Amino acid sequence: MSEELVQKLKEVFSKHGVSISENDRDMSIDDFFGMDSITYVQILNQMASDFGIKINDADLLSGDLTTFNNILEFINQKQMTNEVR
């Protein structure tokens, strides 16, 4: 996984007031102070826009988008399989 991808995703979180440290990357997003469901949806929408990927209902229902590292892996997989908008 490229450091550029990590930094770009951190910027998405940061724009919504969520700071991610190295130690936080495997922590459940629900555990971040001030992170509510609206912020989570806003982050996912911005992530889809910034990375040019699709997030469909099955992706959301799978429960895999719950940590920073899982989201990184999701973006990486989407980009590798060219599942873009």
Q: Give the rounded overall mean pLDDT.
A: 87
**Main sheet specs:** none
The arrangement of helices and strands along the chain is: HHHH
* Beta-strand residue fraction: under 5%
Low-confidence stretches: none
Percent helix among the residues? 40-55%
Main structural class: mainly alpha
Report the span from N to C terminus. 21 Å
Number of strand elements: 0
Give the overall shape: globular
Number of helices: 4
- Rg from Cα: 12 Å
What's the SSE blueprint?
Layout: H1 3-15, H2 37-51, H3 57-61, H4 68-80
Describe this structure in words.
With 85 residues, the protein is mostly helical. Helix content is 54%, strand content 0%. It is built from four helices and no strands. The chain has helices spanning 3-15, 37-51, 57-61, 68-80. The protein is globular. The two termini are 21 Å apart.
Can you tag this structure with a few keywords?
85 residues, 0% strand
Concise structural overview:
The chain is mainly alpha-helical. The chain contains four helices and no strands.
